[in-house]
């Protein structure tokens, strides 16, 4: 009986201590004022994680790293490894975009303003030439 009286409080104490959880204070969230270009603009390596070819005519994005297309379809956006039959792109008429998002279409309204269909600037003009 004495042994039971000694073991019971120890058992209750053991259960109580095993149910304790330590909660660590997390550092406060601080939103950084990000410098640099807007997320849809060419970032020139500043913070870009995703590289896209944007085709202004059909308004299609191609993710170079994942090899998938993003294209509009009935008011929504679709992702596919191949374009559907009705969408055609000119393989030589695209704008290179570096973005920090895996969903380029969220900035589509800004991209269309910057690169409207039919107004594509010549890309890679002068690249590869070394001036001495």
What distinguishing features does this structure have?
132 residues; alpha+beta; 5-stranded antiparallel sheet; 2 helices; 5 strands; 20% strand; rod-shaped; disordered C terminus
Task: Please tell me about this protein's structure.
The chain is of the alpha+beta class and 132 residues long. The protein has a domain of 65 residues. It is built from two helices and five strands; from the N terminus they run αβββββα. The protein is rod-shaped, with a radius of gyration of 28 Å.
What fraction of residues sit in β-strands? 15-25%
Largest sheet features: 5 strands, antiparallel
Mean pLDDT value: 74
The quaternary structure here is single chain
In short:
With 132 residues, this protein is of the alpha+beta class. It is built from two helices and five strands.
Q: How are the SSEs ordered, and which strands pair?
A:
Blueprint (H helix, E strand, L loop, with lengths): L1 H17 L31 E6 L4 E4 L4 E6 L2 E5 L14 E5 L8 H7 L18
Antiparallel strand pairs: 1-2, 1-5, 2-3, 3-4
């Amino acid at each position: 009986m004495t042994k039971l009286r000694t073991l019971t409080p120890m058992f209750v104490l053991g259960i109580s201590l095993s149910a304790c959880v330590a909660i660590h204070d997390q550092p406060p969230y601080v939103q950084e004022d990000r410098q640099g270009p807007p997320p849809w603009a060419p970032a020139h390596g500043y913070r870009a994680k995703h590289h896209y070819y944007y085709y202004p005519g059909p308004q299609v994005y191609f993710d170079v790293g994942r090899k998938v297309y993003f294209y509009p379809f009935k008011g929504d956006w679709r992702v596919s490894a191949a374009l559907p039959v009705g969408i055609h792109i000119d393989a030589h008429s695209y704008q290179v975009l570096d973005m920090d998002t895996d969903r380029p279409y969220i900035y589509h309204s800004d991209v269309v303003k910057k690169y409207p269909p039919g107004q594509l600037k010549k890309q890679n003009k002068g690249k590869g030439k070394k001036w001495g």
